[in-house]
Design a protein that fits this description.
By secondary structure, the protein is mostly helical. It has a domain at 2-57 and 117-145 and 166-271. Helices cover 76% and strands 0% of the residues. It contains 12 helices and no strands. The radius of gyration is 19 Å and the shape is globular. The two termini are 24 Å apart.
């Protein structure tokens, strides 16, 4: 139970920061008393908690998006530039951006589960994508808002999010880096990253949740998993509130440095036999 609570706290702290929550959960398993990988199933289910935090934090925006999309689908046409028109378009771009990760996740699920849990791979992706995030954040322009989203950008964001299927990449890190490369402001790139993750994370989490009942693929009991998910929700909500304010005034460089240091530390621990 204590391990489950600890992992829930870790999930809530790292899910929205561009430092890869799945990498932290995988690494933490090596140092817990059980000394085992918590597993992809447990990690995916915990992410439901953090995504519920996203739903709660952005509830007003999401309600506006939902009703605008519904009215548009039922034949309502909005005045160009109106708030309802922007909300309906954002719903479309979230749908478009979700296609790559659903396709790649469905097609490559078994291969990803069996081959993408290596700590060597996680260390490499932490360092490489950390440096890429730092470079793109520094070089990217600060002009575009979510009103500038189009099909090309939506697909590009979606492809970046799909890279997060590899532990260590970071869903938010990859989508933010892509957003900066496309010329979006930090706050806009981060906001779209949160919204874009909702269908993918909830879909993956619910799929793994259903499988855990029938196939016993979860290393934790159902009750322990519920506790960890609730913990991740509470901590995650606080992190969202802080991060949205942080990126308004600060760059992502502290997270870049952290990724490089953590990735290097993992390589040292692996080379000295401290972890396997």
């Amino acid at each position: 139970m204590l391990e489950a609570i600890f992992l829930g706290i870790l999930q809530g702290l790292t899910e929205f920061l561009p430092i890869s929550s799945s990498a932290h959960i995988r690494l933490a398993g090596e140092f817990l008393p059980s000394a085992q990988d918590p597993g992809a199933t447990f990690t995916a289910i915990m992410q439901i908690g953090t995504e519920i935090a996203v739903l709660l934090y952005f509830r007003k925006e999401l309600i506006a998006i939902f009703f605008a999309a519904f009215r548009w689908l039922t034949g309502k046409r909005f005045e160009t530039g109106s708030e309802e028109s922007k909300s309906a378009k954002l719903a479309l771009w979230i749908l478009v951006g979700s296609i790559p990760i659903f396709v790649l996740g469905f097609v490559g699920q078994s291969y990803i589960r069996d081959n993408f849990r290596s700590l060597y791979l996680i260390a490499a992706t932490l360092i490489i994508f950390g440096l890429l995030l730092g470079w793109l954040d520094r070089k990217g322009s600060k002009l575009k808002t979510l009103d500038s989203l189009n099909t090309r950008d939506g697909i590009a964001y979606g492809l970046a999010q799909a890279l997060a299927l590899i532990p260590g990449v970071s869903r938010s890190g990859a989508t933010i880096a892509m957003g900066r490369m496309l010329g979006y402001r930090r706050e806009s790139a981060l906001r779209y990253s949160f919204l874009l993750a909702i269908p993918a994370v909830l879909g993956s989490g619910l799929y793994e949740l259903i499988n855990s009942f029938s196939e016993q693929t979860n290393n934790f009991s159902n009750f322990e998993t519920v506790i960890s998910t609730l913990t991740a929700f509470a901590v995650g909500y606080l992190v969202i509130s802080w991060l949205m304010k942080f990126v308004t005034y600060r760059s992502f460089m502290p997270f870049v440095v952290y990724r490089v240091v953590l990735g290097s530390a993992i390589l040292v621990l692996l080379s000295t036999g401290q972890i396997s």
